[in-house]
Amino acid sequence: MIYPGLAPGDVKVLRSDQAQITLPPPKIVNIVIDDKQTKVWDRQITWWTPWVPFNPDLERQARLAARDEIEKAALEMGILDQARHNEEESIRALLQIFGMKSVSVGRQYRHLSNPQPQCRILIRMPAYLIVDLEITDPAAWASYRSAVTAVVQNHGGEYVVRGGATIVLEGDWETQRLVVIRFPNQVALNAFWDDPEYQPLKELRQRAARAKVIAVEGV
Q1: Structural domain for 115, as ranges
Q2: φ, ψ at 50 (rounded to 5°)
């Protein structure tokens, strides 16, 4: 069981950090029956029915019928779905070796006249929300800090930097507090930023601190 070879149009680089791979449906291409381990016996021919003529094509017909039954049973057991799943996992693992931190897998279906499924794998890099803060109201900031973590986590975000000590190594960059949050991808970051649950917290943050906020995709 294999996937047919990919055509040039099946792999598209959307951006430097995002690609799209379309896989054709898997199919069974070969079934092997071990001739040494299988025998065909004609029940009509016995020592008491010598008049039944021998059929030299019987064994070939029996093996063809056996292959058909094996393929039917394999399809009913979901072997193609398992093959598709294994292929997606293999591609995901391969891309992660090359530094892809997040690989989301979706499905695309062809025109209804040919409804066999295809797999579409979107590769997205993590996205970082970077906030340069000057806290003006510590009490309001404490309220914001205690409430915002759950919203961040709801969108797969995790804090990478949260107010640690900073040292300026070059230039005149002055910062009082730096916060960096990593999200699985830019879609997740945008979902957090636009989340209705975050909007009142955003207003609370704006009252508690002056901030510069940027989003950047990374590795």
Answers
A1: 8-124
A2: -70, -15
